[in-house]
Amino acid sequence: MTKTETPIRVRYQETDQMGVVYHANYLVWFELGRTDFIEALGFKYHEIENKGVVSPVVDANIQFKKPVRYGEDAYVETWLEDYDGLRITYGYRIFNTSQDLAVSGTTKHVIVKEGSFRPVSIRRSFPEWHEAYTKALER
User: What is the DSSP secondary-structure string of 36-95?
Assistant: First the structure.
């Protein structure tokens, strides 16, 4: 199974009054990890967008375990949780400086036409991505 680790430097503006990363920012970090994962497979996210399709999040699931604080470094571990040729589910784990699991979760995406939001089969429309995703799932 293919996994990536994306380093994160916690910035002051990402924290709340308690000095803890504001919960919505973890979803931004998921996106950083997902983009890094796609690049590790040899693709650029904007390449698929240039073909008139986008990949909206249709479901997000997140569990908060421990806080990540300003001044800490963290990293996002990202992998492909599930893929069926149409829907893609990415898995994430965020670790703090002490290597403690801070946050885990998933996001589910569907590739759709930009204007109509009609689903697009990755298997048929982007066979090279389909092959890479299929291989990334292998354990």
Answer: HHHHHTT--HHHHHTTTEE--EEEEEEEE-S--BTT-EEEEEEEEEEE-SSEEEEEEEEE
Q: Of the listed 16, 73, 82, 84, which one is catalytic?
A: 16
Q: Please, what are the domains in the chain?
A: 3-137 (3.10.129.10)
Give this prediction's pTM.
Answer: 0.94
- Ranges of residues in the chain with a pLDDT under 50 are none
Cα 27-28-29 angle, rounded to 5 deg: 90
The C-alpha atoms of residue 105 and residue 109 are separated, in whole angstroms, by: 14
Q: What is the pLDDT of residue 95?
A: 98
Residue 60 sits at φ, ψ, to 5 deg, of -135, 140
Q: Which two tokens stand for residue 74?
A: 């963290």
Q: Catalytic residue at 100?
A: no
